[in-house]
């Protein structure tokens, strides 16, 4: 199943997805990496691995979010993409684009949704005194971090944790969870569900 990954920055989840999709038995093939940020380190890395990697900078579009998304959509369609993974894609999508990918767009969020939607999740989990924290892969809907949950992975919060130590523990689980959830979604498409 031809799959695109959308990133804005570092791209460690993208790397995990690329690594998984290198296995010919993996049901999704990452054929495109797109970023709104031309400087995203993940773009260069994907290109180096022979994956088509492209930036479509949002800035020239000003406040017209949909115009930027139409440009993204054109590239997604031109590449025959059937599944989209948001992986640290830091732009909120409009209902226009989300509507075009209903059930076919996944996101990873660094918290156990519905707890801690939005930003700074590790700080907030620590402040709230949570004993468990983790990550969630969910389908993207118009409400930010609100779509149906596909899967979660938990980690313990340990004494002395900082947002950085806790975040690193969560990130390691993200790198396992996201490929597993992508595989499941792609397999469902192959099975005609
Ligand atoms: C991850 O923590 C992910 O859960 C969140 O943004 C971060 C992206 O990191 N949505 P990376 O670019 O995948 O390294």
UniProtKB/TrEMBL annotation:
GO terms for molecular function: phosphoribosylglycinamide formyltransferase activity. The active site is at residue 109. InterPro entries: Formyl_transf_N, Formyl_transf_N_sf, GART, GART_AS. GO terms for biological process: 'de novo' IMP biosynthetic process. Gene3D superfamilies: Formyl transferase, N-terminal domain. It comes from the Bacteria. Belongs to the GART family. This is Phosphoribosylglycinamide formyltransferase. It comes from Formicincola oecophyllae.
């Amino acid at each position: 199943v031809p799959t695109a990954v959308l990133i804005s920055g570092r791209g460690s989840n993208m790397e995990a997805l690329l690594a998984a999709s290198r296995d010919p038995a993996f049901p999704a093939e990452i054929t495109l990496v797109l970023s709104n940020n031309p400087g995203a380190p993940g773009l260069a890395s994907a290109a180096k691995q022979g994956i088509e990697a492209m930036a479509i900078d949002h800035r020239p579009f000003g406040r017209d979010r949909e115009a930027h998304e139409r440009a993204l959509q054109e590239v997604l369609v031109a590449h025959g993409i059937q599944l989209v993974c948001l992986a640290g894609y830091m732009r909120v999508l409009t209902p226009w684009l989300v509507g075009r990918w209903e059930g076919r767009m996944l996101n990873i969020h660094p918290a156990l949704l519905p707890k801690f939607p939005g930003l700074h999740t590790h700080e907030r989990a620590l402040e709230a005194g949570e004993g468990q924290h983790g990550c969630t892969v969910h389908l993207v809907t118009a409400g930010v971090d609100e779509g149906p949950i596909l899967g979660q992975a938990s980690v313990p919060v340990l004494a002395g944790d900082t947002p950085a130590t806790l975040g690193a523990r969560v990130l390691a689980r993200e790198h396992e969870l996201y490929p597993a959830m992508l595989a499941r979604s792609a397999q469902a498409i192959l099975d005609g569900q």
